[in-house]
Task: inverse folding
């Protein structure tokens, strides 16, 4: 992988960049696109069934319908359901859980744990929990967005950066404002999306996350290398992004 090798002509400084973040709907859509499994809770019980998605986009496996469409299926055996997903950092950071996602609704047929075919679900709501914050996403918002274009490549890119180029993570710390506090034990890449990269700074008793935005948003994975190099070039030149 030649992710972090590029000619000097590909490097551009990153200056005064708006700190854009994925919306809650984008985060939800991305988690649904990349989840390897989900926990299923039905009939208001505490029993969890782990259902493996086998690399299938959850929204391709679960057909989400608006509640207004329920009247179109009067024969359906309605079963309340809760689907639970977790977003785990691919790198060995402290506290690797990045987000929890819960999607509630009603199944139109009893859930079969071993089934490999898709099923229909009347959408109730999606609740995204990240860093102590809770966001609610409607079905309309969910259908209006696409998964982050880096979602499938993010784990390999972050682990490559963490294990293959730790010196570049150290270099990126020059862009952090305010400067890291004394006692910093280590810094690792936590997340990567179309708008920027997030680093986790770990201290003896706590940790904090810092965001380094890209000069412009990314449309496909091929654009990651020049964006990362723009940040590295800015760090070498002593320039800072606007955060």
Result:
């Amino acid at each position: 992988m030649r992710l972090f090798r590029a000619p000097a002509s590909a490097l551009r400084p990153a200056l005064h960049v708006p700190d854009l973040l994925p919306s809650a709907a984008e985060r939800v859509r991305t988690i649904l696109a990349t989840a390897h499994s989900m926990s299923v809770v039905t009939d208001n019980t505490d029993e969890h069934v782990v259902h493996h998605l086998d690399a299938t986009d959850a929204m391709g496996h679960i057909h989400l319908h608006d509640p207004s469409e329920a009247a179109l299926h009067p024969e359906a055996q309605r079963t309340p359901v809760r689907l639970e997903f977790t977003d785990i950092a691919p790198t060995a950071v402290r506290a690797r859980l990045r987000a929890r996602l819960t999607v509630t609704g009603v199944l139109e047929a009893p859930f079969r744990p071993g089934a490999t075919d898709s099923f229909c679900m009347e959408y109730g709501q999606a609740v995204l929990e990240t860093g102590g914050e809770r966001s609610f996403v409607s079905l309309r918002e969910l259908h209006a967005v696409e998964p982050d274009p880096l979602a499938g490549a993010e784990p390999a890119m972050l682990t490559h950066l963490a294990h293959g180029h730790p010196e570049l993570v150290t270099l990126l710390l020059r862009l952090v404002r305010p400067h890291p506090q004394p006692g910093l034990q280590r810094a690792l890449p936590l997340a990567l999306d179309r708008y920027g990269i997030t680093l986790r700074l770990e201290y003896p008793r706590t940790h904090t996350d810092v965001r380094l935005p890209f000069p412009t948003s990314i449309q496909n994975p091929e654009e990651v290398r020049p964006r990362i190099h723009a940040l590295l070039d800015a760090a070498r030149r002593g320039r800072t992004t606007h955060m």
